[in-house]
């Protein structure tokens, strides 16, 4: 409840603050417009930029949540430029810092960076500037690792503060503070020092992905309970979201990718995300065989190679990068026309973040998630705590939901306010050619699947998806095939979909298991009971051979009866009655 309460509070606060900080005229109002036009060459502020700038210049702490490309950098660059003293920017990636330094240099704002790679002389120069009242240096970028590691740096920062020269502290990618986030970094813990150490110095936290849970966590950790929270809408109207079924054969997947890359995306730039290093190399090699200019990218490559690959993609020498999530933070290519998730992402946050690298220029772009239940089970089996489990569950919902707008599902997750019209037919469920959805009664197959699971369990065998599917379709290992189950009236792919849906609705659960080489997800019964009076309705766009339910408004009906009835298998007649 605590969380619920906080969440409401935050929501109220962030709504109110947005407007309050935009409409008023401040003593610096003329100045900031002058700098915006003269120095940064932009015509106008975006609303949330203005709100953030006005609140930080009023010496408030600020948490600014804005989607990628929203324009977060301007907020602290401009305020740093017009403030007396030095602004410290904590930023997690050196490549990202270098991009910023380059951009600032172009417009003539003095900035530097200090981190593990900085030479001794350079460091000395910077330390000097930190305590020099006449310094021209406006921004100093540091990595969180450096804050955590370098006592010397912290000493100078203290001196800078003591001399009244510390203007502001900026923490980029501030969600890395929170273990709820998809990018948790222990070094961010050290940043909790700032609030007490540098009393009165305003802090700005910036992020593109934070749910309310994460936000509350950040506030607690950094001591930012009184921060002004400014959230920009998360909707990216030019991105088309869709989920496609991933073929079970690798060769079929390659074919599909090749088809996309050489037709719809011919001559267009994009990213394919997958989960393992080996897969990035394999897929890329296959695509190259098919004449696609593709290259892989992952964290095991050395820094120079990574840089080259990134640059050659930036200048369109490569059409597509097949990458692990190591490829991402700080990539600022405007004309990315597609981001394909070849594997199930770990969370909706990471999906939103990764797919959000598409269409930064505002032109239409596609975010495609290739879904297979096997991938999901793998992702799910690799989770190591409740938070991660919950995160994968959200992805399953995103993939299997057949009626709700994909955007609405994302917005729900980020607690964003939402109107149905916001999608403007820019997702596979809302689009023009979307097929109608029917509710199928899948109680009968659900009961058969349970029979298989329990039959196998009685022989001390746990079932993987493949085993379960095979037994259900009456092939494979005879040992786990119970007598008298009905052969499914659908394709294997639809069978998988049904099992996925039963996991999503918690009739089944994924149980983690370990083999010598890998983790596996076994399918087990969940807490939700199924009995002969349960009616499980599954919405689907594909036509399946199970009875269609005519009750349209209810998707799922569970009728609770006396316990004695519940475990009897249904009779043939009852099964037919279900429709
Ligand atoms: P973020 O850090 O939020 O991902 P950036 O700060 O990198 O986004 O900005 C994204 C893009 O938006 C940049 O190309 C920047 O030049 C542009 N931009 C920022 N503010 C404005 C503005 N007020 N008007 C027009 N373009 C802007
Ligand atoms: Mg940024
Ligand atoms: Zn939609």
UniProtKB/TrEMBL annotation:
<dbReference type="GO" id="GO:0043138">
    <property type="term" value="F:3'-5' DNA helicase activity"/>
</dbReference>
<keyword id="KW-0547">Nucleotide-binding</keyword>
<dbReference type="Pfam" id="PF00271">
    <property type="entry name" value="Helicase_C"/>
</dbReference>
<keyword id="KW-0067">ATP-binding</keyword>
<feature type="domain" description="Helicase ATP-binding">
    <location>
        <begin position="53"/>
        <end position="228"/>
    </location>
</feature>
<protein>
    <recommendedName>
        <fullName>ATP-dependent DNA helicase</fullName>
        <ecNumber>5.6.2.4</ecNumber>
    </recommendedName>
</protein>
<dbReference type="InterPro" id="IPR027417">
    <property type="entry name" value="P-loop_NTPase"/>
</dbReference>
<keyword id="KW-0378">Hydrolase</keyword>
<dbReference type="GO" id="GO:0003677">
    <property type="term" value="F:DNA binding"/>
</dbReference>
<dbReference type="Pfam" id="PF00270">
    <property type="entry name" value="DEAD"/>
</dbReference>
<dbReference type="GO" id="GO:0005694">
    <property type="term" value="C:chromosome"/>
</dbReference>
<feature type="domain" description="Helicase C-terminal">
    <location>
        <begin position="256"/>
        <end position="407"/>
    </location>
</feature>
<dbReference type="GO" id="GO:0016787">
    <property type="term" value="F:hydrolase activity"/>
</dbReference>
<dbReference type="InterPro" id="IPR036388">
    <property type="entry name" value="WH-like_DNA-bd_sf"/>
</dbReference>
<dbReference type="GO" id="GO:0000724">
    <property type="term" value="P:double-strand break repair via homologous recombination"/>
</dbReference>
<keyword id="KW-0175">Coiled coil</keyword>
<dbReference type="GO" id="GO:0005737">
    <property type="term" value="C:cytoplasm"/>
</dbReference>
<dbReference type="InterPro" id="IPR004589">
    <property type="entry name" value="DNA_helicase_ATP-dep_RecQ"/>
</dbReference>
<dbReference type="GO" id="GO:0005524">
    <property type="term" value="F:ATP binding"/>
</dbReference>
<keyword id="KW-0539">Nucleus</keyword>
<keyword id="KW-0238">DNA-binding</keyword>
<comment type="similarity">
    <text>Belongs to the helicase family. RecQ subfamily.</text>
</comment>
<dbReference type="GO" id="GO:0005634">
    <property type="term" value="C:nucleus"/>
</dbReference>
<dbReference type="InterPro" id="IPR011545">
    <property type="entry name" value="DEAD/DEAH_box_helicase_dom"/>
</dbReference>
<keyword id="KW-0347">Helicase</keyword>
<dbReference type="GO" id="GO:0046872">
    <property type="term" value="F:metal ion binding"/>
</dbReference>
<keyword id="KW-0413">Isomerase</keyword>
<dbReference type="InterPro" id="IPR032284">
    <property type="entry name" value="RecQ_Zn-bd"/>
</dbReference>
<dbReference type="InterPro" id="IPR001650">
    <property type="entry name" value="Helicase_C-like"/>
</dbReference>
<dbReference type="InterPro" id="IPR014001">
    <property type="entry name" value="Helicase_ATP-bd"/>
</dbReference>
<dbReference type="GO" id="GO:0009378">
    <property type="term" value="F:four-way junction helicase activity"/>
</dbReference>
<dbReference type="Pfam" id="PF16124">
    <property type="entry name" value="RecQ_Zn_bind"/>
</dbReference>
<keyword id="KW-0479">Metal-binding</keyword>
<dbReference type="InterPro" id="IPR002464">
    <property type="entry name" value="DNA/RNA_helicase_DEAH_CS"/>
</dbReference>
């Amino acid at each position: 409840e605590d969380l619920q309460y906080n969440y409401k509070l935050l929501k109220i606060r962030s709504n109110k603050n947005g407007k309050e900080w935009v409409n008023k005229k401040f003593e610096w109002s003329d100045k900031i417009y002058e700098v915006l036009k003269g120095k940064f060459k932009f015509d106008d502020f975006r609303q949330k930029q203005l709100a953030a700038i006005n609140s930080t210049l009023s010496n408030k702490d600020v948490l600014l949540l804005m989607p990628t490309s929203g324009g977060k950098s301007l907020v602290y660059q401009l305020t740093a430029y017009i403030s007396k003293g030095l602004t410290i920017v904590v930023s997690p990636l050196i490549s990202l810092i270098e991009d910023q330094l380059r951009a600032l240099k172009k417009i003539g704002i003095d900035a530097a960076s200090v981190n593990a790679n900085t030479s001794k002389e350079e460091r000395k120069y910077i330390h000097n500037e930190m305590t020099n009242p006449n310094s021209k240096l406006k921004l100093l970028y540091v990595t969180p690792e450096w804050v955590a590691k370098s006592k010397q740096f912290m000493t100078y920062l203290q001196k800078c503060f003591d001399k009244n020269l510390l203007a502001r502290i900026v923490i980029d990618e501030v969600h890395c503070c929170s273990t709820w986030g998809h990018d948790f970094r222990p070094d961010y813990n050290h940043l909790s020092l700032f609030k007490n150490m540098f009393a009165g110095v305003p802090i700005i936290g910036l992020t593109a992905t934070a749910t309310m849970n994460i936000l509350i966590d950040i506030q607690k950790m950094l001591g930012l309970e009184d921060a002004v929270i400014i959230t920009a809408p998360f909707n990216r109207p030019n991105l088309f979201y869709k989920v496609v079924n991933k073929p079970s054969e690798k060769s079929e997947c390659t074919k599909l990718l090749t088809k996309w890359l050489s037709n719809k995306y011919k001559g267009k730039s994009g990213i394919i995300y997958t989960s393992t290093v080996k897969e990035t190399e394999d897929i890329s090699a296959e695509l190259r065989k098919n004449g696609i200019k593709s290259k892989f990218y992952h964290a095991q490559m050395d820094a120079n190679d990574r840089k080259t690959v990134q640059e050659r993609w930036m200048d369109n020498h490569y059409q597509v990068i097949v990458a692990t999530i190591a490829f991402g933070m700080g990539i600022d290519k405007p004309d990315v026309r597609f981001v394909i998730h070849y594997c199930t992402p770990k969370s909706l946050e990471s999906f939103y973040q990764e797919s959000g690298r598409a269409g930064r220029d505002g032109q239409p772009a596609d975010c495609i998630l290739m879904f297979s239940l096997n991938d999901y089970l793998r992702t799910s089996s690799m989770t190591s705590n409740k938070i991660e489990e919950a995160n994968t569950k959200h992805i399953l919902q995103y993939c299997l939901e057949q009626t709700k707008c994909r955007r609405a599902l994302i917005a729900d997750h980020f607690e964003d306010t939402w109107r149905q019209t916001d999608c403007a037919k820019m997702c596979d469920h809302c689009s023009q050619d979307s097929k109608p959805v029917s509710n199928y009664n899948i109680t009968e197959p659900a009961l058969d699947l349970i029979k298989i699971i329990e039959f196998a369990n009685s022989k001390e065998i746990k079932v993987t998806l493949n085993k379960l599917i095979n037994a259900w379709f009456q092939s494979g290992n005879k040992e786990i095939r119970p007598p008298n189950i009905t052969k499914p009236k659908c394709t294997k792919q639809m069978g998988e979909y049904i099992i996925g849906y039963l996991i999503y609705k918690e009739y089944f659960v994924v149980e983690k298991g370990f083999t010598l080489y890998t983790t596996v997800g076994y399918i087990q019964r969940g807490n939700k009971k199924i009995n002969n009076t349960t009616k499980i309705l599954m919405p689907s766009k594909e036509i399946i051979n199970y009875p269609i339910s005519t009750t349209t408004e209810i998707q799922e009906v569970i009728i609770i009866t006396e316990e004695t009835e519940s475990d009897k298998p249904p009779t043939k007649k009852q099964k037919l009655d279900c429709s």
